[in-house]
């Protein structure tokens, strides 16, 4: 007889599903100390297997096998202590829902797709947490498989972040097909990278920095290769580029007469594109030297996750900042939030809304449901959804933002069947039930009155929704009664029967 192994509650896991490699970091947290206890790296090269915004079957089989191996390691870690994020390759794929479903099943944990700017922020979190504290600004450069992230920050605070669609895998496939290396190819790759970098050049140079740090594979591999040449300098990098051109092919650089001592054979297929991007970045920003830095996206995900559990959740400050920026009526938002949470407490068991994430999203949606009023009252639910869907929101994945936007967009007026079908952060039934609770809360608080609402009992007999009001209360509130009658028609569109009775 076997028993299910229980892991210590102090274990946290971060999974970075990158365009080139999948990475896992497992750490043990005890007190204020964080101790890495395991790492796994799987060189999948997902970006190289994307054609017409779809992942080729052979590439996905390789990815699925890697996910299964990582999943075996983290499946028993509690959901709130593990986080998996997908980056540029997942952002490119058109039909992500099926892939995310397969990945989530293999890992035993939900996979989130994060935006490029959020990826840059998390990279900075990873670098700044592991690097000694300093007063000056620093530029962090990370060249991944499908994208390049740049962040200027001071201490632990990122000040400006950018993500550009160029990486070592994508650029090698585009400019150095088959591993062939020529000078015209390098010139073309560097020129294209310079064009991409020009879009952010002015803003970054205006802030300035006193130190440049490089993280992740390409930069760390180049720094190690050039360590005996004085480190990763612009001059040494040009010399490496020239030697690669003379070698003419990636295979020749790893072995044979033209081999470069210490050449990273495991990165040979993607190295030329990464060096071209790195060279372009150093030329664009006039960087003479880059210091290799420990810490990258996976460490950023890990530290950010641990911060959430210690109630240092950057998402809370993101919501507060949006409320301030768009002049949200905080008193009304608090009324709606309190009413919605009362409903959730009564319905969470029969409706299966017991996960802590359900309460968080309902609370955030209530706080931001009127964010679109800063644009116009007419259609403000659509304006609010647009703002939340398209704003850079530190701490939130793209899927999280889409769910939050959907709840805001459906908090009033017409509720379309199928509106939640494409959600990946929550299934359609869960999304619809959260929307129903928010809609009822908004309706009950429509008067914007400081007079407290009476106790309204919410129940879900047969999975439906029943509201029990004090006797005669609805007779004295005809607007609310009319609103509930209309609401019953809207909720019926998503399969929820709303009934009202006196208690």
Number of strands: 15
The helix content is: 40-55%
Task: Write down the Rg.
Answer: 26 Å
Question: How widely separated are the two ends?
Answer: 52 Å
Which regions are unreliable across 5 or more consecutive residues at pLDDT < 50?
A: 1-8
Helix/strand/pairing class, anyone?
A: alpha/beta
Main sheet overview: 5 strands, mixed
What is the general shape? Answer: elongated
Number of helices: 18
Which CATH first-tier class of the largest domain would you pick?
Answer: Alpha Beta
Query: Quick check: average pLDDT?
Result: 91
Strand order of the main beta sheet, please? 3-2-1-6-7
User: In the CATH classification, which architecture of the largest domain applies?
Assistant: 2-Layer Sandwich
Number of domains: 3
Beta content comes to 15-25%
CATH fourth-tier homologous superfamily of the largest domain = Exopolyphosphatase. Domain 2
CATH fold descriptor of the largest domain: Nucleotidyltransferase, domain 5
């Amino acid at each position: 007889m076997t028993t299910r192994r229980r892991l210590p509650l102090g274990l946290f896991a971060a999974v970075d599903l990158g365009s080139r490699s999948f990475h896992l970091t497992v750490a043990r947290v005890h007190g204020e100390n964080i101790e890495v206890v395991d790492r796994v790296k799987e060189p999948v090269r997902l970006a190289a297997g994307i054609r017409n915004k779809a992942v080729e079957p052979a590439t996905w089989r390789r990815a699925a096998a890697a996910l299964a191996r990582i999943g075996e390691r983290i499946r028993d870690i509690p959901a709130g202590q593990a986080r998996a994020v997908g980056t540029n390759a997942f952002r490119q794929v058109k039909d992500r829902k099926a892939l995310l479903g397969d990945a989530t099943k293999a890992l035993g944990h939900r996979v989130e797709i994060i935006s490029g700017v959020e990826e840059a922020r998390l990279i900075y979190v990873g670098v700044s947490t592991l690097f000694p504290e300093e007063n000056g600004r620093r530029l962090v450069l990370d060249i991944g498989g499908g994208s390049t992230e740049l962040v200027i920050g001071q201490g632990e605070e990122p000040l400006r972040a950018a993500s550009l669609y160029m990486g070592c895998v994508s650029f090698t496939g585009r400019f150095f097909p088959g591993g062939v290396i020529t000078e015209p190819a390098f010139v073309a790759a560097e020129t294209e990278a310079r064009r991409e970098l020009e879009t952010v050049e002015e803003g970054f140079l205006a802030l300035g920095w006193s130190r440049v740090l490089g993280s992740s594979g390409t930069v760390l591999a180049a720094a190690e290769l050039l360590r005996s040449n004085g480190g990763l300098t612009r001059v040494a990098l040009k010399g490496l580029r020239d030697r690669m051109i003379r070698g003419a092919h990636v295979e020749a650089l790893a072995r044979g007469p033209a081999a470069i001592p210490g050449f990273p054979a495991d990165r040979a297929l993607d190295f030329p594109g990464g060096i071209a991007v790195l060279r372009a970045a150093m030329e664009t920003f006039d960087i003479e030297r880059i210091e290799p830095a420990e810490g990258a996206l996976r460490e950023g995900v890990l530290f950010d996750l641990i911060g959430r559990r210690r109630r240092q959740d950057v998402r809370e400050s993101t919501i507060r900042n949006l409320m301030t920026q768009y002049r949200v009526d905080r008193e009304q938002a608090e009324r709606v939030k309190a009413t919605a949470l009362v409903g959730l407490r009564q319905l969470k068991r029969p409706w299966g809304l017991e996960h802590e994430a359900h309460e968080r999203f309902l609370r955030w949606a209530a706080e931001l449901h009127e964010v679109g009023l800063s644009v116009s009252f007419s259609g403000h639910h659509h304006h609010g959804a647009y703002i939340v869907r398209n704003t850079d929101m530190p701490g939130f994945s793209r899927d999280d933002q889409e769910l939050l936007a959907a709840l805001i967009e459906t908090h009033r007026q017409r509720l379309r069947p199928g509106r939640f079908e494409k959600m990946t952060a929550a299934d359609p039934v869960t999304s619809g039930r959260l929307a129903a609770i928010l809609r009822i809360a908004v309706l009950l608080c429509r008067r914007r009155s400081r007079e407290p609402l009476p106790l309204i009992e919410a129940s879900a007999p047969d999975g439906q929704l029943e509201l029990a009001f004090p006797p005669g209360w609805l007779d004295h509130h005809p607007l609310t009664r009319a609103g509930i009658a209309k609401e019953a028609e809207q909720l019926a569109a998503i399969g929820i029967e709303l009934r009202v009775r006196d208690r």
